[in-house]
């Protein structure tokens, strides 16, 4: 079995635990109106797939980034809505850089049908949506591949060698003070290079990211041209964003 075999309840368990940081077996059983034995089977399966961490009496999110395959099958409708909002910010013919993440990859899928343009990316899933598109001039970062993407110094150098109209990227999380978080310093450096070499920057993220923690930080939420999300950020962060920069999908 793989991540595409997850039940709807298992996907909901993952989302809930990532939002709250911890859930007991009893709480999950009450929430989903099933027995504790059923929840234990669900979470043990998720633990075996490295999608959740089993702890005493409950579960918590896994440490670090989860495999792309498990993220790609979650909230597909929400990701499609977010990608459509991003597309409204990209002018016809505008050159685009695309960073890591399953939602930026969904943006690439829409770009493939949106007319001629230059696209550069280190996201191999995004590239796979584009390399057969006749109107797209596609440049892909070379280097070591991890979780369907290229990061490290190669990615930062790659993005620094271009100047594009719009950079589209995600993050692992947003800290309480508005700092942008990723799981690795190399991912932060690549994102910083995208930001520095784009005329406009678009961060696309679902609301769960406002509650998620990661150890590498760099950049601030309000330094971006646009923040596209599917629910309002926490009030103290939302107050620091302009009406033009915050875009809500839905």
Keyword list:
250 residues; alpha/beta; Arc Repressor Mutant, subunit A; Rossmann fold; 2 domains; seven-stranded parallel beta sheet; three-stranded antiparallel beta sheet; 10 helices; 37% helix; globular; transcription
What would you note in describing this structure?
The protein has 250 residues and is of the alpha/beta class. It has two domains: 3-63, Orthogonal Bundle (Arc Repressor Mutant, subunit A), CATH 1.10.10.10; 74-248, Rossmann fold (3-Layer(aba) Sandwich). It is 37% helix and 23% strand. The strands form four sheets. It has a seven-stranded parallel beta sheet, sandwiched between helices. A three-stranded antiparallel beta sheet has the order 1-3-2. The chain has a three-stranded antiparallel beta sheet with strand order 10-11-13, covered by helices on one side. A hairpin with a 2-residue loop joins strand 2 (52-55) and strand 3. Helix 5 (76-87) packs across helix 6 and helix 6 packs parallel to helix 7 (124-130). The longest helix has 13 residues, at 8-20. The protein is globular, with a radius of gyration of 18 Å. The protein starts with 7 loop residues before the first helix and ends with a strand. The mean pLDDT is 88.
């Amino acid at each position: 079995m793989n991540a595409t075999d997850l039940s709807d309840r298992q996907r909901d368990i993952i989302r809930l635990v990532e939002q709250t940081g911890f859930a007991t077996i009893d709480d999950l059983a009450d929430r989903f109106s099933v027995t504790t034995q059923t929840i234990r089977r669900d979470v043990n399966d998720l633990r075996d797939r490295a999608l959740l961490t089993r702890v005493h009496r409950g579960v918590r999110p896994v440490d670090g980034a989860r495999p792309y395959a498990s993220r790609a099958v979650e909230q597909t409708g929400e990701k499609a809505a977010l990608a459509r909002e991003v597309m409204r910010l990209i002018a016809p013919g505008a050159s685009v850089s695309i960073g890591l993440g399953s939602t930026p990859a969904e943006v690439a899928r829409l770009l493939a049908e949106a007319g001629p343009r230059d696209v550069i990316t280190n996201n191999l899933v995004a590239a796979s949506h584009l390399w057969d598109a006749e109107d797209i001039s596609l440049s892909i970062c070379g280097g070591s591949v991890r979780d369907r993407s290229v990061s490290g110094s190669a990615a930062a150098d790659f993005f620094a060698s271009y100047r594009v109209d719009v950079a589209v990227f995600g993050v692992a999380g947003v800290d309480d003070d508005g700092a942008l978080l990723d799981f690795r310093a190399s991912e932060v450096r690549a994102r910083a290079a995208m930001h520095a070499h784009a005329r406009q920057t678009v961060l696309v993220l679902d609301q769960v990211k406002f509650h998620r923690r990661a150890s590498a930080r760099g950049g601030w939420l309000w330094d971006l041209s646009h923040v596209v999300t599917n629910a309002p950020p926490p009030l103290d962060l939302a107050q620091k964003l302009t009406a033009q920069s915050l875009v809500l999908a839905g």
